[in-house]
Amino acid sequence: MHCVAPSPPVRQPLSTSERLWLILALVWGLSIVAATSWWHVHGRFNLNAQARPITAEAFVARTQAMIDAHTFGKEGDVPVVRPPADSDVYIVARAWSWWPTLELEKGRSYRLHLSSLDYPHGFLLQTDNINAQVIPGFEQVIELKPSTAGDAMIVCSEYCGLGHPGMTSRIKVR
Ligand code: CUA
Description:
The protein is an alpha+beta fold. The chain has two helices and twelve strands; from the N terminus they run αβαβββββββββββ. The protein is elongated, with a radius of gyration of 26 Å.
């Protein structure tokens, strides 16, 4: 039985291509760190949203108060509400619908409150690049300034059961 001791490692100088790859990897890594930090501050995807605890009863009561004050029509069973600009507006999510339908003015600001009465849902409003989780027990308050006239589709972006694919609505923007 022999034991062969391993020979001590020989340090080879880096070849030019190894050096280049190392520099490339370093520069690439640093630019990703820089881009991530820059986007964190300046990226337009950062939602201007706050989450606060709220009970389902309180949220429904506030939504109903808005509906009572500003409803001007109905589509089926769903009230169509035209709240004034710069006001607080409410949408309730529940399996599997959004309630009520809002009609807002293009270019005006609203504080949009969202909450769920049952499961976690997702509020996706593509025209204004908004995608927010809607969770029972909390309200999300989002600065909304509708940018495009017409019907802005609301799509549920979080799987919430059998009716999830049909959980759509719209905000009418005029
Ligand atoms: Cu609600 Cu998916």
